[in-house]
Amino acid sequence: MKRFLLLFCVLVSFLLFISFEIDVSLSALALTRQQLEGPGQLLYQSRHSLRDDTGSPWQVVLFKRIKDGETLEISLRLVGFPERIEFLHGERLTITTAKGEILAAKDAFAEKSPAANVGQYEMQDILPQLPVTEAIELSLPLEDPRHLNIPIPVLLEWQSLLFSAYI
């Protein structure tokens, strides 16, 4: 009986530890921000730091701008390390799902970019098509092409931005 009670306590402790670890890791991913930009205008942002297939870090920001209850834009901004990354502006961002479906996002900085290491892509029509049960891969249009995996928790956060409250 003592062994059973000891085993039960160890199992409960393990389950509590696991649930705490899951809770902490999920809360670390919840980086959605809301910012009032002006009267009747809100900006929602999902920010993440992810690494590409070469191990290089990227700032990945999906944002949605709303004015007077209407969505003005949903865009994905990708920022790589300055002087090491150069986007091929005018080229589309290729998005590949685990099932092999390919989507392409238009370059919002095709005519003028704030910096060579910054890319921004129009996602308003693409975001509703993205899966939430499998990761996607972004093929970055760079001088030296790279790939960036977007995990499921980030995709779920992006979907929550899609359905963010309107003002």
TrEMBL record:
* Cited Pfam families: DUF3122
- What is the top-level taxon of the source organism? Bacteria
Q: Which InterPro entries match?
A: DUF3122
What name does the UniProt record give this protein? DUF3122 domain-containing protein
Q: Which organism is it from?
A: Microcystis aeruginosa NIES-4325
